[in-house]
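Hi,

I'm pasting everything inline rather than attaching a file, because the server keeps stripping attachments. The sequence lines come first, and each chain or strand is labelled.
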Amino acid sequence: MIITRDASVYRTLQSNLNKNSTALNELYVKTSTGLEVAKASDKPSVVGSIITGRSDILKGERYVENCTHVQDSLSMAETYIDSIEELMTRAKEIAVAGANDSLSQADRNTLADEVNQLQQSLLDLANTQVDGRYLFAGYNDQTQPFSGSPTTYYGTNDHQMIETSPGSTVAKNITGEELFMSPVNLFTTLEDLATALQSGDSGTISSQLTPLEDAAEQVRTRQSQLGNTSARMDDMITMHENSLLLMQSALSRDQDADLTEVLSEIAKMELSLEATMQVTARVSALNLMDYL
Amino acid sequence: MSSLISSLYAGASGLFTSQTAVQVVGNNIANVNTEGYSRQTVSITSSTPLQQGSLLYGTGSTVDTIDRAGDSFVTRQLIAQSAACGEYDAASTPLADIEQILDISDSSLSSDIDSFFDAWEELSTNPAGTTERQQVLQEAENLAAHCNRIDQQLTDVVDGINSTIESMVPTLNDQLQQVAELNTTIMQTERAGGDANTLRDQRDLLVQQVSETCGATTYTDTNGMTCLQLSNGLPLVTGSAASTFAITQTEGRAQLDLTSGNSTFTVAYQDFGGELKGLLAVRDVTIPAMQDDIDRLAYEIATAVNGVHTTGIDKNGNAAADLFTLTAPTDTTAPVWQGAAATITVALDDPDLIAAGTTSATGDNSLTLRIAALRDTGAIDGSTFTEEYARIAAKAGLLVSSNEQKLSASSDQLDALNSKRDTIAGVSTDEEMLLLIQYQAGYEAASNYIGVVQEMMDTLLHM
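And the predicted assembly:
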């Protein structure tokens, strides 16, 4: 056996030079992209978690947006419901005042006028429009929901559901039906109060107190429901944001390069490339012909 | 007693021998970088002695043969390893292309799927909004276009492989023809008593190249001719006859036929080794499987979305139409999703034709939620759409990484075998330099000897 330096040593050196510089190049690319897994073959086993991770993050961000959207929409409704509640409280005060036997019919008529005004305000509130959409109209949010005499509800009983976490939805609206019409009809209640005040019978007026209280209670129920949902949205946003952080760090763990590790790897590879180059130079300097 | 004349001849034979040896050394040095060259050595023997009386006198030396170093076992291993290395090397380029097409970056198909369903989520917050509807249409267009693009790019890879194969075949035919011709020439030369070392080197190299291209196995027939055949036994070269490959175009694929004598055989990827096997396997197995997977994904998304969408009412109050159009395969036995990725398009162009709900009410967003929920259903063998895409991309990645490993292992082995061959048959300049000194010294000694014999003859003549 002979050691054929000419062919085999050079071949080995060349293939090692190739290998080292390819590896070094890959490390340089890793540093510049910051990605450990830039293509599927880099680590096929984590491709699934990278892709679903990315998709979960997008969904998580959407859920946060949706929760905020529900909150915005509910707090918009809340300001109007607060006014409705105040309005109903005022109606009750009027009823209490009107039931006082010492009141003259003229005073009662004045109160009845105020009730009529309240009724008009209530109708205005019920037909509240934000961004061209009626707040209390169910699905028919571009048609005026309340009109006519007696006031009739033309909206629908549907809630616009918004997905706030996988598979679970929250209503972003209160329908006119549940707030104004059923079980207690707020318009009729005010109508009845006005009629009672005009009739001047304190007994009839007093008998309006219970329906008025029921009506106010109906509004307050919705009000607290909104408050609860809004608070729940806060919790959900926090939850989604926390899980987003977790998902992002998991994604980063899966696909990002550990720069410290890559840099130390680069130093190591550079050293070995340099050594290979030096050896290559030395081998070609060794030649019998120099001594002949 | 021997004569001075025969002594003179003995000296002359030394000159000739050394000169021949120097010539061989010179040839070795000149071919130090010739691919496939096998080191040659002179085999020097002592000439037939003369008998005079009871004494036997040597009559000098002669170059018996010029031998070619080599080990048929290593050559055989080299042929096999070249085929393996060729297969993985040829497959690596199209596989890397496929991996690129089915990428896992932010702009992959799975991101388009996510964005599409996200657009429906967005629409759920404002079902009558034109911007949101436009967004849904746009994302649907992107999704369909990405499916089309993947299918087109995979077809482009197939085209690329076809043209590579087409360019390989003439060279391969030429090489087979050359092996057959060399078989004849070598046999004739050697029968005539000549030595065919260089021709044998050429033939070994050609056989190795043929094997790298198509994975041939070899055997030597009774005439010493090298015969080649495919792994399924079809003959490539039999003695002095070479088969030829021809290409026919079938359904956009370059189909290979092998003509041997009067028979023609259709050969598929299994029949080959080497580069052709690598290329054909990617073209005929890997890519069709990928296309089938992407077709199915496109089909399932389209039919699932259409299925829900058509239960809705569009903004104009009409029953909603399909959102995606697919062209059903013409072949009734094919899976229903065949060709879906290539043909998927968005059927609607007017945002008002999108159904957000099941009633014509402007605030009805019930359908958007049902469509958005499709992304979480295990529609394809229990996997969601993005999970299915991840599976396909991971499969492509796995093919690439396993091919890379095999390529690196087999090219290491090929390197090792080549080095082994070099230690047996390669030229070492150092060794040749030493031999040169040795033969030069032999030449000098022989010429000095002739000078001495001449002086002796002078002395004799002047007596």
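Residues 148 and 154 of chain A are 10 Å apart (CA to CA).

If the labels don't parse on your end, tell me and I'll reformat.
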